[in-house]
Amino acid sequence: MRKLFILLILFYSSVGFSISDLHLVVDSSLSLPVRKIIREYAKEQSIIITADFSASKELLKSSEKGAHIVISVHDKKSNSNLRGVNFASDRLYLCLARGSRVEKLISKGGNLNTILKIAKKHSTFIVPNLNSQIGAIIKDVMVKLKIDRYVEIGNFENLGYTAIRSGAFAILPGSIATQYEGAGLEKLFEIPRNLYPKIQYTVSIVDSRGIEQSRDFIRFLFLESVLLRGLGFYQGV
To answer: Which of 99, 78, 68 is nearest to 207 (CA)?
Structure first.
């Protein structure tokens, strides 16, 4: 079983599958037998998969292409509470698929706070379009940085502001918003600079679609086929 799982990792790495000690990133096109193998492997290795596979059936039934499921897992042998971020969540993390149920819910919201609350409730990552202004910044970082290189960011608030202005809205769950009491998700782009004059984190290249940031910071998953401008939240510049 273990050898089979390793072979599956090698095979699916080219189509959006990767594994770490904290997360499983699973392409929704993976078959249920493959998911079962992953689940059994996680059990054998004492890894908790906190999102039930049955919760992904709705996405599996969808004809949408490019829907990715991000399943948060936690290794029993390590500390689940990393810098105030508990990776062991009971919710399914996913990149918005066009026409998905969460997208429809969010599209009904007319303001930033409503969107944030809905997305927070569903633990949803809304990722930027890499062709947008903010996407270009992140893509540039993604391409140029070497694995495990340390980087300092001095104006994270401006990064969030640029994301809003460009129409490439991004929610960053489990990050600086939850590390300080009183700095809730709704305040993500309003955190005082004195809290984070410089943010240091490591970056690892996952594949051509995304980057995996270290446990010390937050996790992005980029999906090029998701065009946030099409959701109608903000007008692009």
So the answer is: 68
Q: What is the pLDDT of residues 28-87, one digit of tens each?
A: 444 555 555 555 555 554 444 433 333 344 433 443 333 333 343 334 344 343 333 233
Q: Of 78, 94, 110, which one is at a domain's C-terminal end?
A: 94
Q: What three-state secondary structure class fits 210?
A: strand
Say yes or no: 76 and 41 in one domain.
yes
Rounded Cα distance, 145 and 147, in Å = 7
Give the sign of the dihedral formed by CA 180, CA 163, CA 26, CA 61. Answer: positive
Domain of residue 212, residue span: 98-237
- Please state, in angstroms and rounded to a whole number, the distance separating the CA atoms of residues 224 and 205: 16
Per-residue confidence (pLDDT) for residue 191, from 0 to 100 = 28
Do 104 and 174 have their domain in common? yes
Q: Which among 191, 172, 190 is positioned nearest to 180, based on CA atoms?
A: 191
Query: Do 79 and 148 share a domain, yes or no?
Result: no
Q: Which ranges in 132-209 belong to alpha helices (H)?
A: 133-144, 156-166, 176-179
Residue 81: exposed, middle, or buried by beta-carbon count in 10 A (0-12, 13-18, 19+)? exposed
Strand, coil or helix: 150: strand
pLDDT digits (tens, 9 = 90+) for 183-228: 222 222 332 334 333 333 322 222 223 323 322 222 232 222 222 2
